[in-house]
Amino acid sequence: AASAPTVTVEAPAPEFKPSIPVAPDPVCAEWGPMADSYAAEQKEWSANGGDPNLPSSSWSTEQRALQMGIIPVLESQVADLRRLADEAQDPFLAGLLRAQATYEDAFATRLPIYQPSDRALWMAAYDFSGAVRAACKTVQPR
Fold first, then answer.
1. Which residues have CB under 8 Å from 1's CB, separation 6+?
2. What is the pLDDT of residue 71?
3. CB under 8 Å to 112, separation ≥6 — which residues?
């Protein structure tokens, strides 16, 4: 007996209308201190990580140790960002958190074999972090 043909119907993409919230999303209360804590853990790496134009094959032993040592911090931050995205009430904020997590995760994965072009991943993660900060601090004017 022949089986019925499979019919695939594509649903239209949901319309996304970002708006300025009237109050910060509840996850912002946790995100702010968390972001500050991760920034403090990344301070030495940011200051002493070396020239971003050098590939990992050119790192000194000290630079490699610093770069490899930051990976668990980045992975922890990615997990926290994804958890907060799942808890966020504002879909726009959730999207920003997920975007930061995605780019930061990709950067952490590439760090052991870093090439200068990989810096764009970090810059995107950094910029999404700034967007999250702004979204958490900005509320609709009264």
1. none
2. 96
3. 56, 67, 68, 71
